[in-house]
Every structure is written in structure tokens, then in C-alpha cells.
Amino acid sequence: PLALGLYTVNAVYGDTITMPCRLEVPDGLMFGKWKYEMPNGSPVFIAFRSSTKKNVQYDDVPDYKDRLSLSENYTLSIKNARISDEKRFVCMLVTEDDVSEEPTIVKVFKQPSQPEILHQADFLETEKLQMLGECVARDSYPEGNVTWYRNGRVLQPTEEVVVINLQKIVDKSTGLFTMTSSLQYMPTKEDANAKFSCIVTYYGPSGQKTIESEPVVFDVHYPTEKVTIQVLPQRSTIKEGDNITLKCSGNGNPPPQEFLFYIPGESEGIRSSDTYVMTDVRRNATGEYKCSLTDRSMMDSTTITVHYLDLQLTPSGEVTKQIGEALPVSCTISSSRNATVFWIKDNTRMQTSPSFSSLQYQDAGNYICETTLQEVEGLKKRKTLKLIVEGKPQIKMTKKTNTNKMSKTIVCHVEGFPKPAVQWTVTGSGSIINKAKETKYVNGRFSSKIVIAPEENVTLTCIAENQLERTVTSLNVSAISIPEYDEPEDRSDDNSEKVNDQAKLIVGIVVGLLLAALVAGVVYWLYVKKSKTASKHVDKDLGNIEENKKLEENNHKSET
């Protein structure tokens, strides 16, 4: 490169400067020398090399002691380039007849350190011009320039908003520059989370270059402009027994630390931190809640509805009633919104609500009235009715001859609650029969039966006894030689229709037999009447025959 028409060598600070002698070596060369020129133009010789003796001599110049090297082709090298090496150096070739000179300009460049933002503000306040920080780039040569950026865009100086002051200081011992650029800035709310940086522009051997600092984010303080109240934890509904927290917040930075909370039923605001806790809330907590700054400015409100569900079961708990009695049952619901009610009996869901106009044993059991509140998670209530149906023992006895004609089965059908104890005895002798078999006790009913083969007529007694009463019933049983007509046993309600059909069939048969008997009687009467008429004719004929016999006997006597 040429500077003002002269050959220029660009060197990096600290590297080796290499300057070739740009003269052609003439014939008869005696020696070559290098010098540099002082600012006033006077020369300072620094290196000498003889063409004949091949020896090199370096002048006693303190700035270049142990730094110079002159090659055979008269190229001069200077180690550890300094800013002070920026001079005009001259190569001289000397013959007996002539002295040739060729100057070289040396330029030294030093890249500055990465810029840093120092003396940063602890925080920035809106609507206030204040010192943001200083961008410092050290040890540059030649001097550089500093530019400030916000979110990647250049900050242009603006009166009372952006004020930039650049200082450049040179180190006299090294000749290197330090650039310091201070930035005064008036932030806005939008500068929260903005990235500020600075870039130093400098010149190097190959031209203009830049280095950027690490970005810095400042805490921007701004006043609260809006207050917001919210209910925590956030959920769609609140029910009695829940714990809730009211949280009040302001959109300022830093956010307010204290607020006034206004609770329904309280005339004055309650001073608290940014939260107000309510535990085990009740339905009377329903209402409008507010919060404001402590100076009563900027208020916000929210409405809280505490859902509730009450269930009243009448009667409830354990209830004992007598069979046949009536028992009205009611399950009353009071709630904050529509509730769903259903009944469960002995772990089975019922299709309708229970109603007892005449209690039966099968009505006994555990009843649960349960209700849930629609769209309110976890809000349900239940109450239990344990119904006990008691009854005195009732007995019906039946007997039949078994198909083998060798024994008879006597059954004692018992109902009652608590379950009666059954005992069999033989009337007269008073002996107890212990070989009875019992069926399963279901809905207050069961049967006890015995199988006997009596040699003579006996009377059996069935005794059923519970806490309410002792019931005794007897039945005459014929000897095994006399068949007993089978007697129908109790039939369940499920078979009532079948029993009715059989009864109708029996009645029809009986009526048919009666009609047949009537017809047979009429026919028989007619037959008897006809027979009597014929008998009279026979008797008359027999009379005539007897008269004839008597006449003949008389005639025979008279003849004799």
C-alpha cells in the first residue's frame, strides 16, 4: 500500500515489522544502511551491513536495542511493534560513486479490548433522565469510536432523552487510547427487559472493524397504573369448607407490597400484604370483594359465590317399626343451585324414593339418601336410615304323605322378626323332636320341617318364639296307614298369579262336576218313575194267574 505516494507497511501492535529494501542492488555496492527520520527531519541511523565483509552492525539506539534484524538482501525487521515505530524509515545503498535511498512508511494498529458497560445504574426510573452507564474500550490504536444500541438499534442523541458523552484518553507510555462513552437516558415502561449494548468501531491493518459489548438489561421502575384482585387457587366453583386466598397485585415495578382489602360485612378496609387468606368459608362469605392501594386509589373487585348443600332425612339413624305400620320418609334438600338426589338400599340404587304405607319384612334394610351439587366438584351429602321391621311370630302348619307312603312331612311355616326360635313337641307325651330342618331366613320368613312315620294318630305342636311373643300351633297327624291329603305350602307373592289360575281351574272342575251330577240325577229320576209304572202292570198280571190257579183247585175238589 502507498501513503502519499510512498510505500507503507501496516503492522499489528506487538508483531514483527518487516520492511524490504525496495532498491535494486547496484554494481560496486559497498554497504547498505537503514535510518529513520525525526519529526524535525534529522536522520537517526540504526543498522549497517557491509557487502564485502558480510558483517552487520546495529547502532546504539535505545528504542531499538535487541529488536532489529537486517538480512542479506537488506530487509529490515523490527520485533515487538510499538506505536512509537510509526515513522518514516529509509533504506540506503552506497557505492563509490552514488548513494540511493528509498523511504517506507510504517503504520501500527492495535485492536481495542471488548467494550464493557461499567458503573451501571442499579435501576432506572421512568420519566427521569439518569446515568445508565459508561461504555469503556481500552488500548486502541488509532483511537476508535463508540456507539450505543437499544435492542439492536442505534441510540441517537436526543435532548433530555438520550445524552451521550465520549472521552478519549491516551496512555503516554504506550500511546494506546482508551475510549469512554457515558449514556444518560430517560426510560419508559417499554424499556423493561430492553437490552442495551455498545459497539466500538476501530481501524485495523485490513480496514474498519467493530467489537460489541455484552448486552445489559436494567430493572425499570414505574408506578402502578392498575390494581387486580384474583381468587386462589383458581377454580370454577367454591364450596363450603374450602380455603381461599385473595391476591391483590399492582402492575407497577416494583409491585406494591401492601393493600387494603374490603370484605363483605366489614365497613373498613383491612390492611394486609398482597394476600388475604380465608379458611373454612361458609355460605355467608358470598359477596363482592375489593382491594385497593393503601391510599385508596386504583380499586378492583370480584364476586365470590360459596356453594352449599344441606340434606335433612326424616327419620334417620336406626328406626324400629312393627310390621303393617306406616312410615313416612322424607329427604329434604337445600342448596345454592340445582341438586341431584338418589336413594340407595343395601348398596343397590333405587329407582324411586321409598314410601311405606304398610311395612313388610322385606322393607327392612339400610337406606341412604345421597345428593350432589351439579358442577361443584366434591360437594355431596348423604344420610342413612337403618330400618328394622319387627313382628310377632306367625305360624301355619301343613302335612302331606310322601310319595313312598312310608313317611309324612310336617312343615311349620314361620314368619316374624327378630327371627323366632322353633321347637317341635308331641302333644300328650311332651317329648321334643330335635331332627327338624330349617330353610334360609329371608324377608322375615322361613320353614321348619320334620319327617315322621307314626304308627298311630298323633298331635304335633310347633312353638315359635322371639323377643316379642311366643306362638303355639298344633296339628293332628294320622297314622302312617292312613294317607294324608297333601296341603299346599305358602307361596310367595311372585307365584300369586299362578295360584289364582289354579284356583280358577279347580272351581271350574267343581262346577262341571256339579252340573254333571245334576244331569245324572234327572236321568235317574225319570228312570225310577218309568220302572214303577212297569211294576204295577207286572203285579196285575201276577194277580190274574193266582186267581186262575185257585179256581182250578176248587173245581177239582168239587168233582171229587
From TrEMBL:
UniProt keyword Cell membrane, yes or no: yes
TM regions (residue ranges): 505-527
Membrane topology: Single-pass type I membrane protein
Main location: membrane
Localization: Cell membrane; Cell projection, Axon; Cell projection, Dendrite
Ig-like domain mapped to chain residues: 103-212, 223-305, 324-386, 393-473
Gene3D superfamilies, alphabetized: Immunoglobulins
Record SUPFAM superfamilies: Immunoglobulin
GO BP: adaptive immune response; cell adhesion
Keyword flag Disulfide bond: yes
Pfam family, one: C2-set_2
GO CC terms of this entry: axon; dendrite; plasma membrane
Keyword line: Adaptive immunity, Cell adhesion, Cell membrane, Cell projection, Disulfide bond, Glycoprotein, Immunity, Immunoglobulin domain, Membrane, Repeat, Transmembrane, Transmembrane helix
Record InterPro entries: CD80_C2-set (IPR013162), Ig-like_dom (IPR007110), Ig-like_dom_sf (IPR036179), Ig-like_fold (IPR013783), Ig_sub (IPR003599), Ig_V-set (IPR013106), Surface_Rcpt/Adhesion_Mol (IPR051116)
Name of the featured protein: CD166 antigen
Source organism: Pterocles gutturalis (yellow-throated sandgrouse)
Lineage, top ranks: Eukaryota, Metazoa, Chordata, Craniata, Vertebrata
